[in-house]
Amino acid sequence: MIIKASQASDVPSSEITSESDYLNRRRFLGASAAGAVVLFGRAAPLGARPQELEPTPEDLATGYNNFYEFGLDKSDPARHAHALRTRPWTIKVDGLCNKPADYQLEDFVQPSAVEDRTYRFRCVEAWSMVVPWRGFPLADVIKRAEPAASAKYVAFETLWDPEQMPERRWRPRIGWPYREGLRLDEAMHPLALLATGMYGKALPNQNGAPLRLIVPWKYGFKSIKSIVRMTFTETEPPTTWATQTPNEYGFYANVNPDVSHPRWSQARERPLGKGILARRVPTRFLNGYEEEVGSLYEDMDLKKFF
Amino acid sequence: MRRSTTSSRPPAASRDARQVFLLKVAIWLSGLAPVCWLSAGVARGALGANPIETIMLVEGRWTLVFLLATMAVTPLRRLAKWNQVVKVRRLLGLFAFFHASVHFLAYAGLDQSFALAYILEDVLERRYITAGFASLVLLIPLAVTSTKGWIRRLGKRWRRLHRLAYAAAVLGVLHFFWKVKADTFWPLLSALLLAALLGVRAYYAAAKRRKAPRVA
């Protein structure tokens, strides 16, 4: 699956490779090694079932989305997100860093080596998918921005343009734009990905084109879509759902079967695309990525910082 | 024909009967259509990425539709002076119970694979499931005692027992409202409708009390 994906030919050549590969070869090798761990290292230990990383059928991943700016039903984004203009696209990097800048998307993406990574994706609503993403480590762009010593967090913002995202029926009382954030050490982790594609193609608009975050050990709402801004901050930045419903969603939002959401248990999840008679499967701590990212939370009470 | 005032009774009665018959046909069709549509959807794999969720959502909505329709019978009778409509109330109520049962079975059977521990946890700990489950439980005695035999046997107590329908409807709407994350449009609309329907009843009940004060 993965090999096939990386052979797909309909990817803009700008996304595949660049001359900076040579200059960044150490970083590239490091990232590839991390990618290899992700891709191949999971099958063996911790009772991981080998069939587990078989990607969810593509039409499910592109037809069942939470992207409230384009409507509240899961099928709304696929219907309405064509209105999103993804070129030209500017990403503002600002806050506590030495090199704040406004980047054109191409300049933002190009210096990095794009890789294919298949991750589990666990929604806070207790369903899950397996998605082959295409992207590059978030750490790349953070290093490039040279965060100040005082920077402890990085905040993200989704585009908010009512013209491209017309009000649908009933606007929820959500303060747009959509905001998310990570602690800087989380953001620097090699598993944290900035995705530009999936299933060997460019990202569909409803999946967060042209650029989205993927943090596979956290609930899906942390993986913010259609990013237009990254801001380095000293204090924990306010994030949309944690602000909206603080008793239900926290800043960390790590996948954790032991911390229930008030409206549903997180102990089990429903993998999509398995048919109507398929049973739920147990959810794993940190979505099965404990080995890689568990050390980030060693001294934390994750029941308190949920 | 024009001056048949004295003999107007039989035709009016047969027109009423036809109206009720057509209404019943419409209720049967709309009552069974969702289940047919869902079954066809399952067979064709056309219910989207999360078919179990689709089944629960569709059946939950139809439960509310039939609950509200049942609650609308008496107000309709009073406001539109349309007495015949009471003859379809039982059918509407039974279809509300039918859809509530399918909704619950989809949850308990398909979504939870009858894992009792998880179902119990849900019912006890999550208020929207507590409310929905309570609503279903309240509907059971109403469905059981909906037959002519039970109406006769219970006499005056039947009316009192069937006031549980109000509680079931309120709990059903609450279940819907507590379930949604951000899209409160339909829950609020259902709540408004239910409030209006209960308001009409309250108004007529109060008027009746004023007219004929009870002497103890």
Describe the fold and architecture.
The complex is a heterodimer of chains A (about 300) and B (about 220). Chain A has about 300 residues and is an alpha+beta fold. Chain A has helices at about 1-5, 15, 20-25, 25-40, 60, 75-80, 105-110, 140-145, 185-190, 240-245, 290-295, and strands at about 90-95, 100-105, 115-120, 125-135, 155-160, 180-185, 195-200, 200, 210-215, 225-235, 270, 280. In chain A, strand 7 and strand 8 form a beta hairpin. In chain A, about 45% of the residues are buried. Residues about 1-50 of chain A have low confidence and may be disordered. Chain B has one domain (about 10-205). Chain B is about 80% helix and about 0% strand. Chain B has helices at about 10-45, 50-80, 90-110, 115-125, 125-145, 150-155, 155-160, 165-180, 185-210. The termini of chain B are far apart. Chains A and B meet through loops of A and helix 2 and helix 4 of B.
Topology readout:
The complex is a heterodimer of chains A (306) and B (216).
Chain A: H1 2-7, H2 13-16, H3 20-23, H4 25-40, H5 58-61, H6 76-80, E1 90-95, E2 101-104, H7 105-109, E3 115-122, E4 127-137, H8 138-145, E5 153-158, E6 179-183, H9 184-188, E7 193-198, E8 201-202, E9 212-214, E10 227-233, H10 240-244, E11 268-271, E12 281-282, H11 290-293
Parallel strand pairs in A: 1-10, 4-11
Antiparallel strand pairs in A: 1-2, 3-4, 4-7, 5-6, 5-10, 7-8, 7-9, 11-12
Chain B: H1 9-44, H2 51-79, H3 89-111, H4 116-125, H5 127-144, H6 148-154, H7 156-161, H8 164-179, H9 185-211
